[in-house]
Amino acid sequence: MDSSVINKIEKAKRYATERDRFRFNQFSLNFHGSNNEHSVSFDQGTWKCDCEYFTVHNWCCHTKALGILLDQMITDAITV
Length: 80
Description:
Layout: H1 3-17, E1 26-32, E2 37-43, E3 46-49, H2 52-57, H3 61-79
Antiparallel strand pairs: 1-2, 2-3
Helix pairs in contact: 1-3
C-alpha cells in the first residue's frame, strides 16, 4: 500500500473520532420488526417511525435500535 493511501486511511480514522465533523441531515429506511415493516426516518435531528408506540411516546424500539447501531458503527470505525 502506498503512503498516500495509508495517510488517507489514518485521516479517516482521525475524522471518525471527531463527531462534531458529522451532521446527519436526513435519511430513511425500512425496519423489519418482529411483527411488521416500519418506515423510520431521521430529519434535522428528529426521529420518526410509523409504529403506534412512536406516535404516543415520540420514541420506540426501532429508533432506539438505530441510535445504538449508529453509535456502535462509530465506535467500530474508530477501532479499525
